[in-house]
Design brief:
The protein is an alpha/beta fold. The chain has two domains: about 150 residues, Aspartate Aminotransferase, domain 1 (Alpha-Beta Complex), CATH 3.90.1150.10; about 240 residues, Type I PLP-dependent aspartate aminotransferase-like (Major domain) (Aspartate Aminotransferase, domain 2), CATH 3.40.640.10. It is built from 13 helices and twelve strands. Strand 5, helix 7 and strand 6 form a beta-alpha-beta unit. The protein is globular. It binds pyridoxal-5'-phosphate. The site of pyridoxal-5'-phosphate has 13 residues, from helix 4.
């Protein structure tokens, strides 16, 4: 698929730093779904990585006011003073953390902050420990920055979390960062405070190892799952912890491109230098909107959470009735990550063997017109990711279609492996 996005007659050679990289498969799938819909095919897209809500009214109003007040010019590179104070307010109110203005910054989405951090700290050969399954962009951002991603796999049995023993084994003299993402995309796993404490005890033994915590799904949790973030769990290690967050997922603001980070002043300064030579300040209007998101009424968060909780229930009620799909409901995020090992090797009605999760996902698109994302995209094959950031009715229809498509498969005569 990658070739589709590269010019075959390019005159300039493509830099080796993007060898093997392409537009994320998820974006490609979303594009394919749009094209199929435009052709009149009734596709249901369960690949969505974003809330389907509109940005709350008060936030939109703040943005409009900012435009009318002339907040349309360059701002301070790493965020306006009100933006920085709103970020500090958020960390204090939600996480009990105190940061100075020099210890926080805003950028164009959480992704920009992750990029800044790796560009600012990695040298060729430095390693970044990535518990998998994880958001695939982590791998590519680390590689663009010259680092080496080191995957540490979780499994359905470990609820897709890694253990302190696994972390200890992955650490080498080249390890610079371990990147934690709780609640997780794609697995929805949430590390409890004591689980984080156990991982951080291992980090403590290695003074050159830093922790990056991607908290973008902080507010999307279910049942009793409590949120914990490394800097709150071990304030004594905060001098080597970077926390990245964004208004994107929490406040249905993915298009506004506004993320933020908090950590030691020296690191934040280095990250600002990278930002100064790439995107520069995040949009002035988006900053004004984000100030309202972080400091204004917070009731949208619980409304969104209740909606996701209901859809999660609908999805798992249906999935539990489909033979060949193994799953436990996620504690957070809006994704179901399901194991499909027993379907691999089955044959489609026209005799095609489902040789891996990507072929299974393609079959579901063709036979059920449902877009799913193969687990191999997140570093864990034989799984699929299904988003429940879509309307209840669509989830129900998708489940019926998936059930019939899977029901039509012929079991393999012998195990594939
Ligand atoms: N981190 C994770 C785990 C994500 O899933 C995403 C988006 O899908 C991001 C970061 C990017 O967030 P933003 O849109 O704020 O750049």
């Amino acid at each position: 698929m990658q070739d589709l996005y590269r010019s075959s007659n390019a005159i300039l050679p493509i830099a080796s730093r993007i060898d093997g990289m392409g537009v994320s498969r998820i974006l490609q799938l979303a594009q394919l779904a749009r094209e199929m819909k435009a052709d009149g095919i009734p596709v249901i897209d369960l690949s969505a990585g974003q809330p389907d809500f509109d940005t709350p009214e008060n936030i939109r109003a703040a943005a409009k006011a900012a435009i009318d007040h002339g907040e349309t010019r360059y701002t301070s590179l790493d965020g306006t003073a009100p933006m920085k104070d709103a970020i500090r307010h958020k960390f204090k109110a939600d996480n009990g953390l105190d940061y100075k203005r020099t210890e926080v910054m805003a950028g164009a989405g959480a992704k920009q902050l992750l990029f800044n951090a790796f560009m600012a700290t990695l040298n060729e050969g430095d390693e970044v420990i990535l518990p998998t399954p994880c958001w695939l962009s982590y791998f590519d951002i680390v590689k663009v920055a010259g680092g080496t991603p080191v995957a540490v796999p979780g499994s359905l049995e470990s609820r897709y979390k890694i253990t302190p023993g696994q972390l200890r084994k992955a650490i080498t003299p080249q390890s610079r960062w371990v990147l934690l993402n709780s609640p997780s995309n794609p697995s929805g796993a949430v590390y409890a405070e004591n689980e984080l404490a156990a991982l951080l005890a291992v980090v403590e033994e290695h003074p050159n190892l830093w922790v990056m915590s991607d908290d973008v799904y902080e507010h999307i949790r279910f049942g009793n799952a409590a949120f914990a973030t490394p800097a709150s769990v071990r304030p004594d290690l905060a001098n080597r912890i970077l926390t990245v967050n964004a208004v994107s997922k929490a406040f249905a603001m993915t298009g506004w491109r506004l993320g933020y980070a908090a950590g030691p002043a020296g690191l934040i300064k280095s990250m600002s230098i990278i930002q100064s030579q790439s995107t520069s300040n995040p949009s002035s209007v988006s900053q004004a909107a984000a100030v309202e998101a972080l400091t204004g009424p917070q009731d949208f968060l619980s409304i969104a959470r209740e909606t996701y909780a209901r859809r999660r229930q609908v999805l798992f009620d249906g999935l539990s009735k489909i033979a060949g799909i193994e799953a436990t409901p996620p504690e957070g995020s809006f994704f179901a990550f399901v194991r499909v090992s027993s379907l691999i090797g089955n044959q489609t009605p026209d005799g095609k063997v489902l040789s891996d999760d990507a072929v299974l996902s393609a079959y579901l698109l063709e036979a059920a017109n449902v877009v799913t994302v193969p687990g191999s995209e997140f570093g864990l094959p034989e799984h699929l990711r299904l988003s429940f950031a879509v309307a209840d009715d669509e989830i129900k229809t998708a489940l019926n279609r998936i059930a019939s498509a899977i029901g039509a498969l012929n079991p393999s005569k012998e195990p594939v492996k």
